[in-house]
Amino acid sequence: MRRFPLFRPLVVLPALAVLGVAGAVTAQIAGDRGVAPIDSSGNFEVTDVHVDISAKSAEDARKGGWRLAQRKAWQMLSQRMTGHAGSLPDSTLNGLVSGIVIENEQIGPTRYIATLGVLFDRGRAGSLLGVGGHSFRSPPMLVIPIEWSGGVAQSLELRTGWQEAWARFRTGSSTIDYVRPTGTGSDPLLLNLGQTGRRDRGWWRMVLDQFGASDVLIPVAHLYRQFPGGPVIGVFEARFGPDNRRIARFALRVENADGVPALMDAGVQRIDQAYQNALRGGILRVDPSLAYIPPPEAEAAPDDGLGEDLIEMTPAPVAGASFNVQFDSPSAAAIGSTEAALRAVPGVGSAATTSLALGGVSVMQVTYSGDVNALRAALEARGWQVDVGGTTLRIRRPVAPAPAASPPAAGGATAG
How far apart are CA 262 and CA 413, in angstroms? Predict the structure, then answer.
């Protein structure tokens, strides 16, 4: 009779452990995740525009309400940008408005009551207001939103209300250049609560290079529910940098869970204002330890006179340095044309898109035979507007000036 060793079943335990780890990793990268930003353009945004108008029909009342919202929004924008409220005819406003955001509306048979947001094209509106089409912005900052709810912290592992609020936020009017991850692919493995507690600069440089960012912002939201169906208190913190430094902290409150999305939106706006104030005050700046430090060069060996007997050889060509270039990518054609334009710049060896975001800001890896200042000068000579942060460049095409305002046209106008 053949005997089997008694310890043989124990061999199965490591295999079960490996399967358990693999299952945990699969669960972490699978599921209902990924929230893409709804708008990464540079439009001027005016929110909380209240209208109340009556007309012969519901459709006429709605169109009239949108026209009235355009006029009120332009007065609010000009007051904010120039210090005095201006006015323009409806025909000119129709060419400036790029969208209407419906925050809340009530439509009756002959009446329209709504709270709207109006988006103005930055280039056209900026020329009429006497301000530049593109204002100064910070270096690209990677956003890792952390939400604490029920004693559990989540970032991008699952779709959260805090991440959705940052995706809804329109960054065009902010001086902070936000890099907002969508939460797909390997994002939950790289950008989580554990990463915000790391201090190793080498690991942070690797993560930031993946997203074309120069530093990190860590907005935190703590949700406290008093009782089921009762008030919800949100405590928000604006943090930044690999050392997780805190800039601001405040609390907001809503009466029930139905108001949590509005609570999150208000928290994002307050945190964005805190980051902008820190940028103007010199507090929010790129950590110099995150910059790439090349290894020290080896010391040259002393010349002992034997060099004259050596055979002269042609040195191999030195490969160019690699840079991340961020650019607007409204369509696939724009991506191809931008790549072709950068390949035509003298000194550029290669240019290929490594992070694609249709309708937003994509990242291209460019190899250039020179330093970042030389690449910036070469791009500016080709007509690009360039902002530099470390080894990352943000390029934009200059916006053409808006046409002269035309006299009011007879008849009604529709909203853009």
Answer: 32
Q: How many helices (H) and strands (E) does the chain have?
A: 11, 15
Nearest Cα to Cα of residue 242 among 214, 276, 272: 214
Chain center to CA of 189: 19
pTM to 2 decimals?
0.56
How crowded is residue 333: how many other Cβ atoms within 10 Å of its Cβ? 9
Q: How many CA atoms lie within 13 A of 176 on its CB side?
A: 28
Q: How far is CA 284 from CA 210, 215, 281, 348, 388, in A?
A: 21, 10, 8, 32, 16
Q: Which two tokens stand for residue 242?
A: 């690999």
In angstroms, rounded to a whole number, what is the distance separating the alpha carbons of residues 176 and 357?
19
3-state secondary structure of 333: helix
Distance separating alpha carbons of residues 397 and 209, to the nearest angstrom: 24
**In angstroms, what CA-CA distances link 302 with 284, 305, 307, 313, 315?**
47, 9, 10, 19, 20
d(CA 409, CA 354): 47
Q: 3-class SS at 55?
A: coil
- Report the distance separating Cα 119 and Cα 84, nearest Å: 19
Number of residues in the chain: 416
Residue with tokens 């902002």: 387
Q: Could you tell me the sign of the dihedral formed by the alpha carbons of 254, 261, 189, 144, in that order?
A: negative
Q: Enter the tokens of residue 11.
A: 């061999």
The backbone region for 391, taken as left when phi is positive above 0, alpha when psi lies in -120 to 50, beta otherwise, is alpha
Contact assessment for residue 90 and residue 367, using Cβ atoms and an 8 Å cutoff = no
Q: What is the pLDDT along the chain (416 residues), one digit of tens a residue?
A: 444 444 343 333 333 333 344 444 444 445 566 677 766 556 777 888 999 999 999 999 999 999 999 999 888 888 877 778 888 888 888 888 888 888 889 999 999 999 998 888 777 777 777 765 445 678 889 999 999 998 899 998 888 999 999 988 888 778 888 988 888 888 888 888 998 988 888 889 888 988 888 899 999 999 999 888 899 999 999 999 999 999 999 999 999 999 999 999 999 999 999 999 999 888 988 888 887 665 566 555 555 544 444 444 444 444 568 888 888 878 778 888 888 888 888 888 888 887 777 777 888 888 888 888 888 888 888 888 888 877 888 888 865 555 555 555 544 444 44
Q: What is the DSSP string of 275-287?
A: HHHHHHTT-S---
